[in-house]
Structures
1.
Amino acid sequence: MLTALVTGGTSGIGAAFARSLARRGFNLVLVARDTARLEQTAAELGTEHGIHVETLTADLAVREDVWRVAQRLEDPSAPVDMLVNNAGFSVKAPFTAEDFSQHEAGFDVMCAAVTRLSGAAARAMTKRRSGWIVNVSSTSGCVTMGEYSAIKAYTTTMTESLAVELHGTGVHVTAVLPGWVRTEFHSRAGIAGTSIPDFMWLDADRLVEEALADVARGKVISVPTLRYKVMVAALHHLPRPTVRWISRAITGVRSREPKA
């Protein structure tokens, strides 16, 4: 049986990846900070799908915890066939904030850890000449709306660069760029999302099914759903001043939302 390691695998998009991969018969290694929730999720998936689910409690903002997850990815006695780098959170602090801790944590979890774990998985997978690395980025990386946009732009570019580096090795690398997804991600960040039209919201399970179909086809960039494919294509072709104007407009509307 194949094995997938999913960070942030107990909620939101990560949990949807875990469910979808479990249905496909993958054994799982779930990584998250909440031990109780990890154990509950593992028990439910294991019972429902008859798979083995291993858990790793880790905070990916802590270097030692990232090192432990990297070691698990490179363990030759228990190969990991697919890595899904999903763990993340919204960074709302402005660049001018005196307290820079949100920015540091965001970079540690969504840039440094993603790069470190992708590299560890790539080393192990290239030895076997097979494997998949899936990095959950965002369409936010196509606009200019603060630290989160910058982080996700990095994630997408890093993933493409890794795909170039691993070309011909048998290891496939995909960046998934979701749009607005109905999960607890936004409520945790205090984002109501009331300014977002209903048709822009995506279902996490549908998003993951489309993403895994793209992974199976060997696509390096996966933008689930036609509406977001059109939006991302338009943003790539618009002049940068126009993208910044759009970003200011969206930021202004969102700033007037009630708190979640």
2.
Amino acid sequence: MTTWVLLRGLMRETRHWGEFPMLFQDAVGARNIVTLDFPGNGSLHAHTSLNSVAEMAHHCRAQLKQLGYAPPYRVLALSLGAMVAVEWCRLYPDELERLVLINTSLAPNNPFYHRLRPANYPALSSYLMLGSAARRERLILRLTSTQNRSAQQRTELLEQWTGYARECPVTRANILRQLRAAASYRAAPAAPAAPVLLLAAQRDRLVNVKCSLTLAKQWDCTVKLHPTAGHDIPLDDGYWVAQQVKEWVKETDDIDKQAR
């Protein structure tokens, strides 16, 4: 039994995982599931967001130490959180024993027009920086989810997310810092030292699925594709994510046992 650390992406907080942590814990049999916020988001919304992905990785380590969780860890991370996991593994390879990266993209491995689809540039610039909390959350849901919802389900989810945004507002300055950290990050040429599972959505409206396919080829690691989900696969189909991780962890754990 081990500790799984869950990391989300730009402007998102731990509450955006919804019921996924419990579902995931039941599937993989993890003793501990720890969800962390980055400075500037969620419980840390009053803090200044960090200027680099490396600083975010250091902050995750400090939070876990403060909470009393010791390495090694297994990390499941989405988007910007996945960049942090990759850098964390580079800086402290002995601390992470498994990485599950969801819809991530990395420079210089992936071109900028695959890392963020150009069609989204105008809307993101306008709504993320100038729009109200409600308009911003509507845009985020449209860009990150493809799940069919009834009008009532959609309204309830957006009211919940808008409530989070008002309770723990992410300032425009912090949005810019997080965007700058993600845009300026350059991954190391070598693959992460820990085994990696890549999960990607074929209908991701934000990040081209080619990003994960390219990384899988360059790193010689496993990639699984969801045919209908959007960027936030845990939101659209958390059960699928949990099952993919469960099967992969069993395979990699069996390989480790045979190698001993």
3.
Amino acid sequence: MSVTVRWAPSPTGRIHLGNARPALLNWFFARRHGGRYVLRMDDTDLARSTRDFADGIEEDLSWLGVTPDLLVRQSERTDLYDTARDRLIAAGRLYPCYETEDELDRKRSRARLLGKPPIYDRAALELSAEDRARLEAEGRKPHWRFKLDGRPVQFDDVIKGPQTVNTASMSDPVLIRADGSYLYTLPSVVDDIDLGITHVIRGEDHVSNTGTQIEIFEALGGPVPTFGHHNLLTDAQGQGFSKRLGSQSVRDFREEGYEPLAIATVATLTGTSLPVEPYASLDAIAERLDFSMVSHGSARFDPAELDGLNAKLLHAMPYEEAAPRLSSMGLEGEAIWLLLRENLVKFPDIAEWSKILVGPMEPVIAPEDQDFLALAKALLPPEPWDETTWGHWTETLKTTTGRKGKALFLPLRMALTGRHDGPELKSLLVLLGRKACLDRLP
């Protein structure tokens, strides 16, 4: 069977790490099985969905390395949903309801007081044609509910294993609002049938929805896809990511200078048995990640883990990959990259580190080191220099002054770079050159 998956974001904001998780897990599954990847914009919420947000989602996916095989927008597919609506009405599975939200709230409260589950009582099914006409004459417009079978719906989840959702304990879901607009459920099922979706991979918060959706698939005579529900990624405090709560977006991470592969790796491998470590590419992850590796427990995002992974990717990045980005910052030469990359957490950090080479830089000289540094200046070897120069110079200073360890090396580092930490001085010395070193030593 040819695999076709879909990721279906709502373009009501920028995507965050929690959104990136199913986007990438679907991508990995499609790549692993040589399948197709559909990006479906669930933009039926006309009040909140915007084209700018939709464009932003495409931009973020592209940055992460995901290239959909097909893009569809639900706002452009209304005729399909109307046809399905009419079929369900004709089959007696979709029925009009006239209760207001206040009336429904009162029904639910009453049920709770009586110790009953607060599910819809299907009172609308008892309305006669005359009752409906009277309500509509009063100005009421119906919302439409799908009549559930009310049975245990069983399915084999490729992540969580065998599942049962009993729709007898659920309210008949509203599929169409009183203004005629569609909620998520019906368009989603119709699209999955029309697009030939074979696998629906999404967060475990959708497990209970699956029973309802399977019943709609069956009512429309469509093939039921295979479902897989993964654990949800939470923030460092254990809270779910949310657009409405302003969770840090993928674009925010991009603008802060994180590598797309680091974001993709942390978003997907957190909460699995695969280690969160550098991989060569998304395809390398796809080759190794199997859904049996997805934990049934929580998946908590650790910012420190992201920083560590991002740093490792930069430390291993070849010059050829870094060169265009360096050039855009006015930095040229493989030697600079090889010297500074080991100190980077994020790529933009190199702008600050490069100041130790090109300045402006203020040497930091402790009063008690003045004489030592003056002697170091006098003993600075003549050029040409190579990576052995540092060792010869410091050995001469050690023999001459008796200094060693931190007392020997730290004053030299502070005078030459103005920092306590930094790249290897044996390599830095060569790039600085003798004139720059003389200028920085007192």
